[in-house]
UniProtKB/TrEMBL annotation:
InterPro entries: Restrct_endonuc-II-like (IPR011335), tRNA_endonuc-like_dom_sf (IPR011856). GO terms for molecular function: nucleic acid binding. This is Transposon Tn7 transposition protein TnsA. Keywords: Plasmid.
Length: 145
C-alpha cells in the first residue's frame, strides 16, 4: 500500500525541489508525486510514454484515460503529470481571489495539477493544464468529473 502523506514540511518541500521534482521536460521530467507515495481509493497506473520516453505516474483510471488521449494526439509535444503549483507561484492568485492558500501546521502546501501539456497549435506553442477529479454524486456514488 502507498505511504500516506497528506502534507509536507518546509524541509520536505525544499528536498523535492532540490531533487528536481516537477521540473524538466520530456524524459527528464520528474513528477511531484509518484504512485508509490499517494494512497488511492481506486487504481493508480505507471505507464510508459513513447512521446516523452519515460514512465508516467497516474493516480486514477480517469487520469489514465486523459493521458492515453494526449499520448495519441499528434499536436501534443510533452505531457507532465502531478505538476506542482508552488506557493511562491500561486499565493498571489489566492490573495486576489480572497481565499487563504492551503496550509497545514503553518506550512503553505504545494498543490498540483494532474496533467500539463505542451502542444503545437498551428506552429504556436501552447501550454495547458488539466485537473481531473473523482467526486461523489447526490446518491453517494463515486463518479469521475
Amino acid at each position: 500500500m502507498a505511504k500516506a502523506n497528506s502534507s509536507f514540511s518546509e524541509v520536505q518541500i525544499a528536498r523535492r525541489i532540490k531533487e528536481g521534482r516537477g521540473q524538466g521536460h520530456g524524459k527528464d521530467y520528474i513528477p511531484w508525486l509518484t504512485v508509490q507515495e499517494v494512497p488511492s481509493a481506486g487504481r493508480s497506473h505507471r505507464i510508459y510514454s513513447h512521446k516523452t520516453g519515460r514512465v508516467h505516474h497516474l493516480l486514477s483510471d480517469l487520469e489514465l484515460a486523459v493521458f492515453l488521449s494526449l499520448e495519441w494526439e499528434s499536436s501534443v509535444l510533452d505531457i507532465r503529470e502531478q505538476f506542482p503549483l508552488l506557493p511562491s507561484d500561486i499565493r498571489q492568485i489566492a490573495i486576489d481571489s480572497g481565499i487563504k492558500h492551503p496550509a497545514i501546521r503553518g506550512v503553505d502546501q504545494v498543490m498540483s495539477t494532474d496533467e500539463i501539456t505542451d502542444a503545437d497549435k498551428e506552429n504556436w506553442l501552447h501550454a495547458g493544464d488539466m485537473l481531473i477529479e473523482v467526486v461523489k454524486d447526490a446518491n453517494g456514488e463515486w463518479v469521475e468529473a
